[in-house]
TrEMBL record:
Top-level taxon of origin: Bacteria
Protein name from the UniProt record: Calcineurin-like phosphoesterase domain-containing protein
Annotated organism of origin: Actinocatenispora rupis
GO molecular function, one term: phosphatase activity
GO cellular component terms, semicolon-separated: cytoplasm
Calcineurin-like phosphoesterase domain span: 3-138
Pfam families: Metallophos
Amino acid sequence: MTRIAVVGDVGGHRDELASALRALGAADGDDGPVLPPDLVVVQVGDLIDRGPDSAGVLRLVDGVLTRQPAQWVQLVGNHEQRYVHRAVFRWPETLDPDSAATLVRWWRTGTMRAAVAFTDASGLGWLACHGGLTAEYRRDVLGRPGTAREAAEAIDALRFDERLWRPGAKLTGSPDRWAGPVWADAASELHPSWLDRYAERGAPPPFAQVYGHSQAARWDADVPGLAIDRHARHQTRTVAGIPLVGVDPRHGRHAAPEWSPLVFADATLA
Ligand SMILES: [Mn+2]
């Protein structure tokens, strides 16, 4: 059986990523981490920027993708978007040319994707993408996929389509229920979208989701209906029994004091 570890935004913190992998059982090989055979890592995007060593993060991940390609799923975040699509926002840091070329190669070859699906031990389907999928984007852009797997395939089919990158409140300042899966903001777009759909029509989300990019609340907040794990740095909103889990540890220039990947025992990649 497979353990799936969903790793939140890394933000250029190579040492944090390496120690998280070590805690998951990775060995320190001569060329970088070697994952144990039962482990698949899903990284939700935003590997780069903010922290001290974006280039080192990309070298580490590129090594695992080369040596153990079946055991690492790399998703695209809006920080990678600057290199594989267009720089739609300004950022004070710029990758060196080799690092930028790595991202472009991953995107062109399909090594880096926009979404992935898996099934947990209870049989629940999960969609993973950088920002999360709103109910409106699922309905109007993707054509109502009924399963996490169909949703992931529909999102990935947009990899060279402008609609994949549709921005939301984090870029424009105005909440947009049609914000795309790279940009949707948990507090103002993703959570209200599914909560309203359920409140209006009694329709539960068709699958669970795990995403990075933003968190719905501050770590010290006390929000009804939102479970905040301050140690792991996960935030879970449950809509009609279906979880939406944010895993962005929100590292800044300095790493979060504590954080962990979200681990699913006995899961199956779609
Ligand atoms: Mn992001």
